[in-house]
Known about the structure:
By secondary structure, this protein is an alpha+beta fold.
Amino acid sequence: MKKTITAYCFSSGHIDFGVTLPEGAIALATGEEKMVRDILTACARLSRLDNETLFVPGVPEAQNPREGMTAVARFIQWLGKRNQSGFRASGA
Length: 92
């Protein structure tokens, strides 16, 4: 059986992965670990500082929290277009 994980982000837009959703985090997608990591790595924005840390596109550049949440919502909708067996965007 393949391990199931959740991709989530915080208000900063920083994306992380885990088997549980930490308090204050926003779920982005859930599914088989390899598939979730592969899709999020392909769709997310890399940090300009270390070129490794993943961010929700548009959140670090947002002028206020409302713009940041709008960027998260758009990203989840975009991820929803990739729904398939083993991968499901949150709310989709």
